[in-house]
Amino acid sequence: MTGFYKGLPGYTRKSEELLARDAEKTAYYWWWRFMQLSPVLWYAQKEGIKPVDNNIFATVGIVGDLKERNFTKWWDRTGKFVFAESKRPPKILVVKAGQMVGQNDNREGIILDIPLTISKATILKDFKEILTKHHKGRQLNVAEYGTASLRLHTKKYHLQALENEYWTLLYKLLFPSVEIWRIGDRLKISPSLRVRGIERKSLLPGAGNPFENLQSLTGRYLYKAKYMMLNTERGSFPNKEKIELDLSYEPFEKLKMQGYLNAITGKLDQDSPWIAWLRKQYESNLLNQIASKNGLEAMLNSNEPKLAKRFRNFVLGIENLI
Description:
The protein is mainly alpha-helical. The chain is built from 13 helices and no strands.
């Protein structure tokens, strides 16, 4: 039996092979993906320097090699250790007469004296009333009580939303000139919002305008993804809470900041070293995702230069391939 993982359906697996396979279908996979989009984590690992933000410094110290492109390999070396709970959740205990819970048990709970001389129906009725009074119910965030090195911020998330946020952010990072609504169209964020072949100027602005709706929807994914990445740097995921970084914010000490800025700042028609690394590592993943969403795998993998150029123009928003 493997360790205990709060982000894994069923929490544990019978073997390490099953654990690695199933972990790839959870928030842990997208946590790993978002860490790879952080320029701060990338530069810290590339140069072997320490961020001055203690939370980011702690993240760098435990996330392993983020250059690893294979999730299973990263999971076996790092993920299964940093996401594992050091303690399993407590269970209900039977406290007998004259016996109390051990002094080292620091869990939150209540001790009930349940008479066994009344009906089970009455006991259950009273128990539910007491539980309702003392338990937080839906307001309880089980993830808060995690003991993993990297613990989930919340268990209230949708995997599809995490996936959409990741691809939207990666698309915008690699192709910053592409309009946001086009990114949503290419990624099929909402297949019901059809915009190809429609003259945008012919539509009135308002709630029924598919261009505006797609722009708004994709923009929200992008907005949330940026904060997701910032929180991920600080060891918190999935977390879309807003992080305000003022103009004076510097993730590294002053002597290292110029090198960092040079590494993440591109020139006219030239990628920054960071974007060049992202492109080398993950552009093929993004192109495969776009091709898969649009049924264009044959065009992507074609040896015909004209087809390859048309697909590239589609990604760049120059051609729609209706």
